[in-house]
Amino acid sequence: MIEKLPFSMQMIFQLNKIEKACFGKEAWTIANLRGEYENDFSHMFGEKTEDGTVVGYACVRTLYEEAQLCNVAVLPEYRRQGIASRLLETVSEFAKVQGCERCELEVNTANTAAIELYKKCGFEIVGTRPNFYKRTKRYPTRDAYTMVKEF
Ligand SMILES: CC(C)(COP(=O)(O)OP(=O)(O)OC[C@H]1O[C@@H](n2cnc3c(N)ncnc32)[C@H](O)[C@@H]1OP(=O)(O)O)[C@@H](O)C(=O)NCCC(=O)NCCS
Q: How many angstroms is it from 110 CA to the middle of ligand 1?
Protein backbone atom coordinates (compact mmCIF):
# COMPACT_ATOMS: atom_id res chain seq x y z
CA MET A 1 0.00 0.00 0.00
CA ILE A 2 1.28 3.48 -0.86
CA GLU A 3 1.35 5.97 2.00
CA LYS A 4 2.76 9.41 2.75
CA LEU A 5 5.78 8.74 4.94
CA PRO A 6 5.97 10.85 8.10
CA PHE A 7 9.33 11.82 9.59
CA SER A 8 10.96 9.57 12.16
CA MET A 9 14.57 8.49 12.49
CA GLN A 10 13.48 4.90 11.93
CA MET A 11 11.91 6.01 8.62
CA ILE A 12 15.13 7.81 7.63
CA PHE A 13 17.11 4.60 8.29
CA GLN A 14 14.67 2.58 6.15
CA LEU A 15 14.89 5.07 3.27
CA ASN A 16 18.69 5.14 3.53
CA LYS A 17 18.71 1.34 3.22
CA ILE A 18 16.67 1.59 -0.01
CA GLU A 19 18.97 4.37 -1.26
CA LYS A 20 22.09 2.26 -0.67
CA ALA A 21 20.54 -0.80 -2.35
CA CYS A 22 19.50 1.27 -5.38
CA PHE A 23 22.21 3.91 -5.80
CA GLY A 24 25.32 2.53 -4.01
CA LYS A 25 27.91 5.28 -3.54
CA GLU A 26 25.53 7.93 -4.88
CA ALA A 27 22.88 7.11 -2.24
CA TRP A 28 21.29 9.95 -0.31
CA THR A 29 22.86 9.98 3.15
CA ILE A 30 21.02 10.18 6.47
CA ALA A 31 21.79 13.94 6.42
CA ASN A 32 20.41 14.33 2.87
CA LEU A 33 17.21 12.55 3.87
CA ARG A 34 16.83 14.61 7.05
CA GLY A 35 17.37 17.75 4.98
CA GLU A 36 14.60 16.68 2.62
CA TYR A 37 12.22 16.18 5.54
CA GLU A 38 13.11 19.65 6.84
CA ASN A 39 12.16 21.17 3.47
CA ASP A 40 8.52 22.28 3.64
CA PHE A 41 8.18 21.79 -0.14
CA SER A 42 9.33 18.18 0.00
CA HIS A 43 7.14 15.11 0.47
CA MET A 44 7.92 11.39 0.74
CA PHE A 45 5.67 8.54 -0.35
CA GLY A 46 6.38 4.85 0.06
CA GLU A 47 5.09 1.35 -0.58
CA LYS A 48 4.89 -0.68 2.63
CA THR A 49 4.61 -4.42 3.04
CA GLU A 50 2.12 -5.85 5.55
CA ASP A 51 4.68 -5.70 8.35
CA GLY A 52 5.27 -2.00 7.68
CA THR A 53 8.60 -2.29 5.87
CA VAL A 54 9.10 0.33 3.16
CA VAL A 55 10.24 -1.39 -0.07
CA GLY A 56 10.06 1.53 -2.48
CA TYR A 57 9.76 5.28 -2.17
CA ALA A 58 9.44 8.52 -4.09
CA CYS A 59 10.38 12.06 -3.10
CA VAL A 60 8.62 15.02 -4.70
CA ARG A 61 9.02 18.75 -4.17
CA THR A 62 5.92 20.78 -4.92
CA LEU A 63 7.08 24.25 -5.92
CA TYR A 64 4.01 26.33 -6.77
CA GLU A 65 3.01 25.44 -10.38
CA GLU A 66 5.76 22.85 -10.75
CA ALA A 67 6.42 19.55 -9.01
CA GLN A 68 9.95 18.15 -9.13
CA LEU A 69 10.35 14.43 -8.82
CA CYS A 70 13.64 14.16 -6.92
CA ASN A 71 13.85 10.42 -6.53
CA VAL A 72 12.10 7.13 -7.05
CA ALA A 73 13.65 3.84 -5.94
CA VAL A 74 12.40 0.30 -5.39
CA LEU A 75 14.39 -2.48 -3.69
CA PRO A 76 15.74 -4.88 -6.38
CA GLU A 77 13.72 -7.87 -5.12
CA TYR A 78 10.44 -5.91 -5.40
CA ARG A 79 10.91 -4.54 -8.93
CA ARG A 80 8.65 -5.15 -11.96
CA GLN A 81 5.56 -5.39 -9.76
CA GLY A 82 4.22 -1.94 -10.59
CA ILE A 83 5.40 -0.30 -7.35
CA ALA A 84 7.21 2.63 -9.00
CA SER A 85 4.25 3.18 -11.36
CA ARG A 86 1.87 3.37 -8.40
CA LEU A 87 4.22 5.70 -6.55
CA LEU A 88 4.32 8.06 -9.56
CA GLU A 89 0.53 7.97 -9.86
CA THR A 90 0.16 8.87 -6.17
CA VAL A 91 2.78 11.62 -6.42
CA SER A 92 1.03 13.09 -9.48
CA GLU A 93 -2.36 13.12 -7.75
CA PHE A 94 -0.80 14.73 -4.66
CA ALA A 95 0.98 17.40 -6.74
CA LYS A 96 -2.24 18.23 -8.61
CA VAL A 97 -4.07 18.73 -5.33
CA GLN A 98 -1.23 21.06 -4.23
CA GLY A 99 -1.93 23.17 -7.33
CA CYS A 100 0.94 21.98 -9.53
CA GLU A 101 0.38 22.07 -13.30
CA ARG A 102 3.23 19.78 -14.29
CA CYS A 103 5.86 17.44 -12.92
CA GLU A 104 9.51 17.63 -14.01
CA LEU A 105 12.48 15.33 -13.47
CA GLU A 106 16.01 14.60 -14.61
CA VAL A 107 17.21 11.10 -15.45
CA ASN A 108 20.54 9.79 -16.70
CA THR A 109 20.24 9.20 -20.46
CA ALA A 110 21.58 5.63 -19.90
CA ASN A 111 19.04 4.71 -17.19
CA THR A 112 16.77 2.74 -19.52
CA ALA A 113 14.61 1.23 -16.77
CA ALA A 114 13.72 4.63 -15.31
CA ILE A 115 13.21 6.26 -18.74
CA GLU A 116 10.80 3.48 -19.75
CA LEU A 117 9.00 3.81 -16.43
CA TYR A 118 8.58 7.56 -16.84
CA LYS A 119 7.37 7.24 -20.45
CA LYS A 120 4.84 4.63 -19.38
CA CYS A 121 3.63 7.03 -16.66
CA GLY A 122 3.06 9.88 -19.14
CA PHE A 123 6.37 11.79 -19.05
CA GLU A 124 7.96 13.08 -22.25
CA ILE A 125 11.59 13.98 -22.95
CA VAL A 126 11.76 17.76 -23.43
CA GLY A 127 15.51 18.35 -23.36
CA THR A 128 19.01 17.10 -22.61
CA ARG A 129 21.42 18.49 -20.02
CA PRO A 130 25.03 17.59 -20.89
CA ASN A 131 27.25 16.61 -17.93
CA PHE A 132 24.40 17.10 -15.47
CA TYR A 133 25.57 14.32 -13.14
CA LYS A 134 28.85 13.62 -11.39
CA ARG A 135 31.01 10.97 -13.06
CA THR A 136 30.23 7.51 -11.62
CA LYS A 137 30.83 3.88 -12.53
CA ARG A 138 27.07 3.27 -12.68
CA TYR A 139 26.46 4.86 -16.09
CA PRO A 140 28.71 5.50 -19.10
CA THR A 141 27.40 9.05 -19.48
CA ARG A 142 26.87 12.08 -17.23
CA ASP A 143 24.10 13.49 -19.43
CA ALA A 144 20.52 13.85 -18.25
CA TYR A 145 17.20 14.02 -20.01
CA THR A 146 14.69 16.46 -18.65
CA MET A 147 11.27 14.84 -18.71
CA VAL A 148 7.93 16.54 -18.07
CA LYS A 149 4.39 15.40 -17.48
CA GLU A 150 1.70 18.06 -17.93
CA PHE A 151 -1.31 17.48 -15.67
C1 LIG B 1 13.41 2.47 -12.13
C2 LIG B 1 12.71 1.73 -10.98
C3 LIG B 1 12.29 2.77 -9.92
C4 LIG B 1 11.47 0.99 -11.55
O5 LIG B 1 10.76 0.44 -10.42
P6 LIG B 1 9.69 -0.75 -10.62
O7 LIG B 1 8.84 -0.80 -9.41
O8 LIG B 1 10.40 -1.99 -11.03
O9 LIG B 1 8.84 -0.22 -11.87
P10 LIG B 1 7.42 -0.77 -12.39
O11 LIG B 1 7.27 -2.20 -11.97
O12 LIG B 1 6.37 0.18 -11.98
O13 LIG B 1 7.66 -0.73 -13.97
C14 LIG B 1 6.86 0.07 -14.82
C15 LIG B 1 7.42 0.02 -16.23
O16 LIG B 1 8.72 0.60 -16.28
C17 LIG B 1 9.52 -0.07 -17.27
N18 LIG B 1 10.64 -0.75 -16.65
C19 LIG B 1 10.85 -0.97 -15.32
N20 LIG B 1 12.03 -1.60 -15.12
C21 LIG B 1 12.56 -1.79 -16.36
C22 LIG B 1 13.76 -2.39 -16.81
N23 LIG B 1 14.65 -2.93 -15.97
N24 LIG B 1 14.01 -2.38 -18.15
C25 LIG B 1 13.14 -1.83 -19.02
N26 LIG B 1 11.96 -1.26 -18.64
C27 LIG B 1 11.69 -1.24 -17.32
C28 LIG B 1 8.59 -1.08 -17.93
O29 LIG B 1 7.93 -0.43 -19.00
C30 LIG B 1 7.61 -1.38 -16.78
O31 LIG B 1 6.39 -1.89 -17.23
P32 LIG B 1 6.23 -3.50 -17.41
O33 LIG B 1 6.75 -4.15 -16.16
O34 LIG B 1 4.75 -3.66 -17.61
O35 LIG B 1 7.04 -3.85 -18.62
C36 LIG B 1 13.67 0.67 -10.35
O37 LIG B 1 14.25 -0.12 -11.39
C38 LIG B 1 14.79 1.25 -9.50
O39 LIG B 1 14.62 1.47 -8.28
N40 LIG B 1 15.94 1.54 -10.13
C41 LIG B 1 17.11 2.09 -9.41
C42 LIG B 1 16.86 3.51 -8.96
C43 LIG B 1 16.68 4.46 -10.14
O44 LIG B 1 17.39 4.41 -11.14
N45 LIG B 1 15.70 5.38 -9.97
C46 LIG B 1 15.42 6.42 -10.94
C47 LIG B 1 16.28 7.60 -10.67
S48 LIG B 1 15.97 8.90 -11.85
A: 13
112 C-alpha to ligand 1 centroid (Å): 8
The size of the chain, in residues, is 151
Superfamily (CATH) of domain 2-150: Gcn5-related N-acetyltransferase (GNAT) (3.40.630.30)
131-136 long-range CB contacts below 8 Å, 24 or more apart?
A: 132/106, 133/108, 134/26, 136/25, 136/26
User: Ligand 1 within 6 A of 81 CB?
Assistant: yes
64 is catalytic: no
Residue 93 has pLDDT above 90, yes or no: yes
pLDDT at 137: 86
Q: Is the pLDDT of residue 56 over 90?
A: yes
Q: Which atom of ligand 1 is nearest to the CA of 116?
A: 17
Q: How confident is the model at residue 145 (pLDDT cuts 50, 70, 90)?
A: very high
Delimit the domains of the chain by residue range.
Answer: 2-150
What pLDDT, on a 0 to 100 scale, did the predictor assign at position 39? 97
Q: Give the predicted TM-score (pTM) of the model.
A: 0.97
- Asked if residue 85 has its Cβ within 6 Å of ligand 1, the reply is yes
Looking from the CA of 41 toward its CB, the CA atoms found within 13 Å total 12
* 106 tagged catalytic: yes
